[in-house]
UniProtKB/TrEMBL annotation:
Keyword annotations of the record: ATP-binding, Coenzyme A biosynthesis, Cytoplasm, Kinase, Metal-binding, Nucleotide-binding, Potassium, Transferase
Protein name per UniProt: Type III pantothenate kinase
Cofactor: K(+); NH4(+)
Recorded metabolic or biological pathway in which this protein acts: Cofactor biosynthesis; coenzyme A biosynthesis; CoA from (R)-pantothenate: step 1/5
HAMAP family, alphabetized: Pantothen_kinase_3
Function (record text): Catalyzes the phosphorylation of pantothenate (Pan), the first step in CoA biosynthesis.
Biological process annotations from GO: coenzyme A biosynthetic process
Entry binding sites for K(+): 122
Subunit structure: Homodimer.
Active-site residue list: 102 (proton acceptor)
């Protein structure tokens, strides 16, 4: 079985798939290497024979994780590396190595699925948008604070914005003007995300008319999907690209 890991800035998403048909055996989202190991080991009868990783963490953190995996499962993890060109997509950065690997892989995955022009939106700790033209040219993209960063900046830099996670969740039953601090902040940040996403779609329309696909991924995709009815929500888009970048045979 193949262990796949997407190491983001706040969380690690993992899943275990069968080698032959890519059927998903299990998966989850964790906030530490140790919890990751515990969760994988808790899956009965899993024999990890290969591992592929995408990481936007430091080289040291990624090395520590690959060592742990070598120790626990006796496999050498394959770590996805940047490339100037792959699977028909040309990296649009001046220095291709600077483009975040999560963005690059999501872009590869999206172009593979769309087989044409696409806009890729990934809403995690950071909110990211990337544009790929029909000929596979990656045109670049945008990076903004995502929901967790917007909310924590407000909490950190003000005296009187304080609330707990449970009330934050309750506040999102509607997006009407907030009548409490928690509603005002949570709804305001969601509207920021929706505005970000709409602006990207407008830009794609200016370039490509109606001839493009929109892909939506990342933990906070559900917060904007109603304002983007034509978007394809693909939670595992980074894993689609990861399998392309690290084919393991
Ligand atoms: N089960 C979950 N565990 C943690 N966060 C979740 C979960 N489901 C949804 N989320 C939301 O997902 C967001 C984090 O998204 P994601 O996991 O894509 O971030 P990340 O990969 O760490 O960040 P980035 O991609 O910017 O590096 C959080 O704001 C949280 O609200
Ligand atoms: C933007 C983040 C932090 C989002 O995970 C990641 O893609 C990253 O570290 N990128 C490097 C900077 C860049 O993409 O220009
Ligand atoms: K990510």
């Amino acid at each position: 079985m193949i262990l796949e890991l997407d190491c983001g800035n706040s969380f690690i998403k993992w899943r275990v798939i069968h080698v032959h048909d890519a059927m998903i055996v299990g998966g989850g989202i964790v906030d530490s290497d140790q919890t990751l190991m515990d969760q994988i080991r808790a899956l009965a009868c899993v024999q990890v024979t290969a591992c592929r990783i995408v990481s936007v963490r430091s080289e040291e953190e990624t090395d520590a994780l690959t060592s742990l995996i070598a120790q626990v499962f006796a496999v050498q993890a394959q770590v996805a590396r940047s490339a100037p060109e792959m699977a028909g997509v040309r990296n649009g950065y001046e220095d291709y190595q600077r483009l975040g690997m999560d963005r690059w892989l999501a872009t590869l995955g999206a172009f593979h699925l769309a087989k044409g022009a696409c806009l890729v939106i990934d809403l995690g700790t950071a909110a990211k948008a990337d544009f790929v033209a029909a000929n596979g040219e990656h045109l670049g993209g945008y990076i903004c604070p995502g929901m967790p960063l917007m909310r924590s900046q407000l909490r950190t830099h003000t005296r009187r914005i304080r609330y707990d996670d449970a009330s934050a969740e309750r506040a999102l039953v509607s997006l009407a003007p907030g009548r409490s601090t928690v509603e005002a902040v949570e709804r305001g940040c969601v509207l920021m995300l929706q505005g970000f996403v709409r602006t990207q779609v407008e830009q794609a329309r200016e370039m490509w008319g109606e001839d493009f696909a929109v892909f939506l991924t990342g933990g906070d995709a559900p917060l904007v999907k109603d304002s983007l009815p034509d978007a394809r929500v693909v939670p595992d888009l980074v894993f689609v690209g990861l399998a392309m970048a690290c084919p393991l045979n």
